[in-house]
């Protein structure tokens, strides 16, 4: 599969599954490539694929790496709007993004959170 960027169609050369997007998002998280992760999230939705817990996990981990705590919280809210319930690993990444931004008190409110945020 060839990878394209720009123009009509998706980043990948042909229609792919949410699993493929998740793998690419995982790589973005590992490499700290937030911008690319956001492009992939948008394309996944344009392709009418449904993001799942792992999709959001990797996107939020990309936020964690760059300290984009507000974006991480926006993604948690989006998760809830599509009825995907955040798990502890999601809240841990939100807490880490807050810490990276120097917001220790806010971060501590997401440590070991068992309920969804409003």
TrEMBL record:
Protein name: PPR10 protein
Domain of life, per lineage: Eukaryota
Key words, A-Z: Repeat
A Pfam family per the record: PPR_3
Keyword Repeat: yes
Keyword Metal-binding found: no
InterPro entries noted in UniProt: PPR_rpt, TPR-like_helical_dom_sf
Residue windows of the PPR repeats: 17-51, 52-86
PANTHER family (alphabetical): PENTATRICOPEPTIDE REPEAT-CONTAINING PROTEIN GUN1, CHLOROPLASTIC, PPR_LONG DOMAIN-CONTAINING PROTEIN
């Amino acid at each position: 599969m060839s990878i394209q960027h720009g123009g009509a169609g998706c980043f990948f050369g042909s229609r792919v599954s949410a699993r493929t997007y998740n793998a690419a998002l995982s790589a973005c998280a590992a490499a700290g490539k937030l911008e690319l992760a956001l492009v992939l999230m948008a394309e996944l939705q344009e392709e009418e694929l449904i993001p799942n817990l792992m999709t959001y996990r990797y996107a939020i981990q990309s936020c964690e790496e760059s300290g984009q705590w507000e974006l991480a919280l926006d993604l948690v809210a989006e998760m809830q709007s599509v009825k995907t319930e955040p798990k502890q690993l999601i809240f841990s990444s939100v807490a880490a993004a807050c810490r990276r931004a120097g917001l220790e008190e806010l971060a501590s409110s997401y440590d070991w959170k068992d309920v969804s945020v409003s």
